[in-house]
């Protein structure tokens, strides 16, 4: 004979699977990555003891100031991220919760992603070299540029590579430095004809830039809103769409003349 459950007993019995489901949801892996500000590197100098930009076949000028490419660090494609970590990350100022597909758009395991990022970096370096030499009306037949940046993958350093090449070969075009002696940071992809593209994670990159001394940050124009949302105090945001425009803005800042756009 079946006995009738009291209301309290029934609620208790029903609560057990609900609690189990909530516990599962809290600890179950979710398709997100947790990102934070990463390392920066001065493309005009050395990184891990190796010169980032080496040029032969043309006179290379000495430079002052810094041009720092910026990165983010994110949990790997095989790392489990729980609901509790996601909730915690939403309220943290120095972290961001990003869809895993946005961080690793090609998918795959860690080894495959590292290979993909390495390939993207090589393509970015080739495009950056072509864009810079094209801006200076030089050819790679006569000028050889070697770019080395350890432990960094992807295409987002393209703009800074191009600016570094231009600064080493021509500066601001009239004997001065593109940086004006400042620490300038930034991010953005580059095409061979000098078009600057969006990269993602710019809010975190502004934090990395300011942490490492930058006072100016070059940001793809389409990502101005994201950059402003987490902009640290003391960091000026300059939107760019082309290599030529980025150089014009830096020259205007260096000389204190002309219009400099802002986000």
TrEMBL record:
<dbReference type="InterPro" id="IPR008269">
    <property type="entry name" value="Lon_proteolytic"/>
</dbReference>
<feature type="domain" description="Lon proteolytic">
    <location>
        <begin position="153"/>
        <end position="228"/>
    </location>
</feature>
<dbReference type="GO" id="GO:0006508">
    <property type="term" value="P:proteolysis"/>
</dbReference>
<dbReference type="GO" id="GO:0004252">
    <property type="term" value="F:serine-type endopeptidase activity"/>
</dbReference>
<dbReference type="GO" id="GO:0004176">
    <property type="term" value="F:ATP-dependent peptidase activity"/>
</dbReference>
<protein>
    <recommendedName>
        <fullName>Lon proteolytic domain-containing protein</fullName>
    </recommendedName>
</protein>
<dbReference type="Pfam" id="PF05362">
    <property type="entry name" value="Lon_C"/>
</dbReference>
<dbReference type="InterPro" id="IPR020568">
    <property type="entry name" value="Ribosomal_Su5_D2-typ_SF"/>
</dbReference>
<dbReference type="InterPro" id="IPR014721">
    <property type="entry name" value="Ribsml_uS5_D2-typ_fold_subgr"/>
</dbReference>
